[in-house]
Amino acid sequence: MDLGWLSGLAYGDTGWGDELLQGALLTLAISGCSYLLGIVLGLIGATAKSSRSRTAKILAWFYTTIVRAVPELLLILLIYYTSTSALRQVIVGLGIARDFEVNGFVAACLSLGFVQGAYCTEVFRGAIAAVSRGQREAAAALGLSRQHAWWLVIFPQMLQRALPGLGNLWLVVLKESALISVVGFSELLFTAKMAGGASHNYLFFFLTVAIAYLALSVVSSRLFDRIEGHVGRHERAHG
Amino acid sequence: MDSDFVALLAEKLFEGLKTTLLLMAVCGVLGNLLAVPIAFARISSCAALRKPAYIFILVLRGTPVLVQLYLFYYGLGEILSRTPALRHSVLWPYLRSAFGYAALALTLNTAAYCAEIWRGALDGLPKGQVEAAKSLGMRPWQFRLLVVLPQAFRNALPALSGQNVLLLKATSLASTITIFEVMGAANLVRSQTFRVYESLFGAALVYVALTVAITGMFSIVERWVNRPYRH
Predict the structure, then answer these.
(1) How far is CA A112 from the centre of its chain?
(2) Does B14 touch chain A (CB under 8 A)?
(3) Would the ipTM clear 0.85, i.e. be above it?
(4) Helix axis angle, A188-199 to A202-231, nearest 10°
(5) Cys staple from B177: which of A79, A104, B36, B73, with CB 3.0 to 4.6 Å?
């Protein structure tokens, strides 16, 4: 049976179906890991920005300002190259292993996660600021310590206010993961470029991955809408 | 750091800067202008206008810029090169240049993101203005041009500033389709001299300076449009 162009998506040796599927899974894995790393960095960054320490504030300001002013592609190249060689030097230097190779996946997640962290810092900082002052005062009036007030009162409310921003950031990291193709990591876009080059049919394969990214974006934004609706259900019930 | 290397890096970055500025100017102007009619189409009561605008915005915001860039450069380029009428025409040298494809992709991308910003700004306007304008006897187009647009512009400005910084950063992707802009210049020096950090740091400095310039220009405009409201 001849399917024309679509035969390019066949599974197995004749088409690129299995390679593209593997690329899509790698894209999801890289995006997921970078997203989690970004959230951790974002929490650290936002805590630093709302802390009393001047040094922490300045460091966090520097981090978010630089990352938002420099192209992601440049940062990714910079971190991709430095993280591989720097981590190797540290590990070999400390005598943990005689030779060490940072794999592309880890380097990709480190670089994308670093960029995500800066955007996440801003989302969390805004969410912290949106928790009303009265909440802190009420917590203090109840005799909660600063630590307890943060974990029991501020943090849960902050998380809820951060949800829309966090949903957006997932869509951003999903699309930004395509930049990893530039360093030759075989995620979805890189695989499509290989397939397009081999079959002399770029248009078909790029359209295919465009549709794949679009489907992933639409499905994930639906999912985040649901989570937001679920988390916000109490507030709606009480009007 | 030796002075030969610094001179080489500065020279290449300056060459690249010209292309970055040109690309930024073309896409910035066209993309921002195109965004306004798309936003009006998006909120139009006529489905024939609203639906295409909705799909345009969804597709361009839902796929990576790099994919859009490749689709135009490799995909569209492939189709055009297979069309003999174009291949042998006087236009071919222009149709073959990567710059046009990059400008097209980044313009459409910026238009989609900015249209969404404008839509939010238009939605945020108080509804009573429609009635006020009608009672003054304004025609619908007069109302849109004289009442809605200036107010929405003021609401949209902060977000538009951010979007134009994102456009600047997106121009660096043009280096992946052979365009020699700032990022491309840094990559060239990097591969010629094997000095990864210095080359990339040099380019980063250029981008930071350009970002500061763009946000500075927008904050001047912001102050200017807000001046009747300052006390």
Answers:
(1) 6
(2) no
(3) yes
(4) 160
(5) B73
